[in-house]
Amino acid sequence: MAEDFSSERALFGGAIVSTFPIRFQDVSNIRQVPDHQEVFVDPSRDESLIFELLDFKHDVEDNGSAVWFLQDLATEQDAEGSVVIEQSGVIEVPGLCYANIPSVVTTAVGQMAISKGRQGREAQNIVRVYLANLRLKAVGTDVLICAYEPILINPLSESASSVGSGLTTPASQSGCMPMPEVFKLALSSFKVCDWSVFGANG
């Protein structure tokens, strides 16, 4: 079985680092990605990992914030049949403390039917989404880490040409790290090297 090697990646010009498998390629090498996002994809499995920096949502409670962002994501992607499979409580992240103000994280896992790009609903794939919301209150930023794992590929989806339609091959059978583990690794290794990326001083 092939090993799924991971390495530390520099995000947002090196201001942030996170570790995940090298099979995930930087999408910005292929197409333009918004400045507040870093997008990585494994085209052979149609799996993706997205890091996003957003202005802090003051009207969203810490408890259940990941679920709120998951549902927001589903709305944004015009998803159907969105369900929340699990969610965590609020966990403090000591390693992401700035100006003595702690950061917290919540996570959620959902499943939804979403189409690729501009494809219509008739081409929806069933996708499991793992989402972490790191709330960096000291710098007024909500960080999202989203991992997308297709469960069922629609024959009409553009993904079908690269990964085939129907149920996707489990990662373990392909010698790949399963997406829940990719997600946990990316989250646990997430580190801010330069807080000025958030407009913070020092």
Automatic annotation (TrEMBL):
Keywords: Protein transport, Transport
One GO term (biological process): protein import into nucleus
Highest taxon listed in the record's lineage: Eukaryota
GO cellular component, one term: nucleus
GO MF, any single term: small GTPase binding
Pfam families per UniProt: Mog1
PANTHER family for the chain: RAN GUANINE NUCLEOTIDE RELEASE FACTOR
Family according to the record: Belongs to the MOG1 family.
Protein name: Probable ran guanine nucleotide release factor
Gene source species: Cucurbita moschata (Winter crookneck squash)
